[in-house]
Design a protein that fits this description.
Layout: H1 4-20, E1 24-25, H2 26-33, H3 37-49, E2 53-54, E3 62-65
């Protein structure tokens, strides 16, 4: 089950990925949400562990939604 914050982060990642066609970084989301990047990275990590997001590059802080 997703928390309301996780639902919001997931929705924004999906929307931005569909709009831009590129992975979304925590910095970009933090500017939109007024949350710290570390808070967003934590939520992105939780979504990734649930199989809802992919982390395409381990050296980059970006996420895309899982399309399995």
């Amino acid at each position: 089950m997703l928390s309301p914050r996780q639902e919001l982060v997931l929705r924004l990642v999906v929307e931005r990925t569909l709009d831009d066609g590129a992975p979304v970084g925590s910095k970009a989301l933090s500017e939109q949400l007024s949350w710290g990047p570390s808070t967003i990275r934590s939520e992105l990590s939780a979504l990734e562990q649930q199989g809802l997001l992919d982390h395409p590059h381990t050296s980059r802080d970006r996420a895309t939604f899982a399309s399995n």
